[in-house]
Amino acid sequence: MRKELEAQLAAQLRDEVVCVEKTDQRTIFIDVKREAIRRAARIVTEAGGRYMCGVGYDNIARDGTLGMVHTFSMDRNDHFICVRTKVPAIDPVMESITPDLPSAGWSEREFMDMLGMQFTNHPKPKRLVLADDWPAGIYPLRKEVPYDLVPPGADDVAYQLDEAPPGTKIVPIGPFHPSLHEPEHFAVYVDGETIKGCDYRGFMTHRGIEKLCQTQVSYNEVPFIAERICGICGSVHATAFSQAVESAGGIKIPRRAEYIRTLMLEIERIHSHLLWLGVAGHLIGFDTVFMQAWRVREQLMWLCERLTGNRKTYGMVLIGGVRRDITPEIADDIRAVVKKIEEELRVIHRAIEKDSSIHKRTKGVGTITKEETIAWGLIGPVARARGVDIDARRDHPYAAYNDMKFDVPVLTDCDVWSTLVVRVLETYEAIRIIHQVLDKMPAGPIFVELKDKIPALRHAITTVEAPRGESTHYVITGEDNRPDRWRVRAPTYTNLQAVPLMLLNEQFGDFPIIMGSIDPCFSCTDRVAVIDLQSGKASSMTRRELEFLSREQLHRA
Amino acid sequence: MWLTSKIKQILMVMKPGIVTLDYPRQPAPAPATFRGQPVWDHHKCLGCGGCANHCPARCILTRDVCQELRVMLYDGSRCTYCGRCADVCPEEAITMSNNFQTACDDKNDITTRLELFMLTCQRCGRCYEMEKTNVIDRMELRGFRYDNLESRALIRQTTDTFSPETLAATEQYQRPSR
User: Fold this and answer.
1) For the domain A209-526, what is the CATH code?
2) Which residue of A has its CA nearest to B82?
3) Cβ of B13 and A292 within 8 Å?
4) pLDDT for B116-169, tens place per residue?
5) Alpha-carbon gap, residue B95 to B46, rounded angstroms
């Protein structure tokens, strides 16, 4: 595989390939000159690569360059391919790969904002991450910018929406909207009731967790912060970060710890899918499903409280292993609870599977074809409901998944209903995996002491299959007992980019459920901790006062 | 099909009935393994500062007031209850209690302050010197941190040096009342 690709690259790019490096069984790094980045990306895509994410990093202090990595996954033969290039910081221009790979659009826009890179021929070079009033010329991910920089705000700037197609009206949804749950802004262009397009402005809760972890904390504090990226799939982010650092530092963790990580990830999948089922019911106005799914879920939350010490944010994963062991008593407890959940979920499943009122709201809604799904690089249940058979647990096994037997449910109806069915079926599979984990779990230690320093400037990439799709983490190790660069690509980051496509020519009333069908997690996408603002008398305050008040609340908290 | 589904749904709802707990009238205690509010045992604490060094939320702060007196301060308003401090404590002076009802109107109610009398090093005493060159301060430069009480207040403007005026402004800020 590697040889073939290398030969292809060498034949087509000749001396523009700088070097090919293979760090472990799975990962291949290809360094190319910046002129060749688009052609290299095209060759990797043609060889079967699925675009995962772009990673930009600041290397100015070492050789005056900014680095850019485009990462690809070869799902059929378990390889990650990272195409690396670098551009001088004084002239950070390279060719955009977005015209070939639409899912790279956000990654490139992110590093235009955060590192000041420029991509020629990018179809939509607008701001993505930074606030509209952030001053031009300050690139927060560059090392010279302090992590707590607060530039003065401005009131007179606003995001320029895309031009509305002729004959349409704009309906704003968000930043605060009952169907969104988190602050994001959609401008939906409608012709009557039919959606003709949509523009997205998000990242309103971006708080720079990556910058914080690159400058302030040490390696084994990051898992706790990573866990707070997302309120639902926290363990996924902690595991992915830990695996990336372990992979970069060559740390081998005990097998029992890997089994416990698998257990936590599957428990998380059950509770996330049950949560989603409830929310989906709520979004189509069927609150019976909402109440019952969350009732079933609650016993799992209590189980986690007994198991890890908390309902959510388990705090189980550290670099080097896990923190709490599974005793035989707690194992019996887990078995009993998941058995009960399976029984109760089957009752819900039977009660809704033939309900024609749910079918009317979900069947044939949010349809995109399999080809479009592959072109946009969609992942997780959203892709599996559209006939794309990918699952990081099976394709790139991590933790103890290579010992587990499970099916990956794939449906071909391409609509919201099939994402619902995929998620319910996956929940049964997760319960199956939990029983296997408990039966096969080997004895032994759960944590390995880190004896040596983690070497600096090693690159590593891992994916973990979160309930919503794969989470990709890219780590460059650093010198000060903390990562030099840590990039988180949550599943919603990819799936959200294709939502305008799913919405096209749908009814406006179906917006909430189409949006909900990707199980959007905006806080993952923004990489933030969610902060509840104290309700104030907003009407009598100016924006500045309100902002100051909310910042003060933040400081108190 | 619609009717049979509705009948199944009615049965699904009828069987469990009402499950809402009568909290807070009926207390719902957390399990024994719960990670709640951490409790310090000042008899056991050595003042090593290991907890302060590992706290991801930076809510445990250490400061040497003079050679013999070290203040350890736990600021519960910022705690994320990860329990890492209890993990790393060499003397097991920190336990995670199962108290989760920590809402209060004054943050001092959930702040713990220990004043520990430290022995001076018989050899030179320099470790406890209050200057920037001592060993403990140097730990800060190598990826270890050694927080102080000043950095406790987050200051809105970015400053290169610590400014007492901004701290005072932040500390004395009064929330506007209705």
Assistant:
1) 1.10.645.10
2) A315
3) yes
4) 887 766 666 555 544 444 444 444 433 334 444 444 434 334 445 556 676 666
5) 15
